[in-house]
Amino acid sequence: MFGNSGRGPLLKHESRGFGPIGARVESDPAELEAALGHVFAKPELLVCALTHRSLANELALENGHEEVGGAGDNERLEFLGDAVLGLVVAEALYNAHPEWQEGELTRVRAQLVSRQHMAEVATAIGLGSHLRLSRGEDRGGLRRKSTVLSNAMEAVVAALFVDGGLEPVRAFARRCIMGEAAEQLAEELRSGAALGNFKSALQEQLQAARAGTPVYRVKSETGPDHRKRFLVEVRLKADEGEPGMPLARGQGSTKKHAEQDAARRALERLAAKAAKTGAPASIQSEAEEEAQGEG
Length: 295
What we know:
By secondary structure, the chain is mostly helical. The chain is built from 13 helices and 3 strands. The protein is globular.
């Protein structure tokens, strides 16, 4: 098993064309292919998409060459992936929302292809554990850096496109990039909240009512690493020694999505109460509302 010139254990994908450079991958690429929903006919594309410039340069220096200047890293794929991602997301929004005008389509697309959202998608599928980094950068925590994750996610999208065309990219985008995030953004457009900011809208409403400040707590995490589900509760900030009043709970594939969902539900509850009474809603927890309904 270790008779490969001291390079470490051979991996499954070496037999599929990864070669010596692929042997530096410590995780099983088949796990990532499962999360992406695509088995690569040319697995070297996935290797390239996962290869950070630091490792490409390190390997070049080990072999007695100058810096590779991007030839062995994921930066060219990142450039292509950015364009492919914009096209696929724009197409999906165009087909799903015939009622939206250009401005609405543009605003939602910008949120879905943003570096922040792409880093969250990368985290949700466990991309960080598959990145190929130099030894120094690996020890430096680069796997968790949002910029590195978002860039690698774009490169992986490009690898999907080059290997299989638009269809595997569309399927991945529907499942992991659009999904609940697109639904949430559409709901924010309908509600008039600033896109991506149910949390900000809730904080502003509570402050205007002098009711306090919302705080968010993760109640539970379920599912495997590439399909995590978070349950988050939003409460009013507690006084010292007090638990704080719970307002609502939300779920999502990332903590941010779950927090936004909790804030959205809290806003809906406040809006429903205001509509019933014809006056600004008083702050009331979900549990108190349920108890009143049973009574």
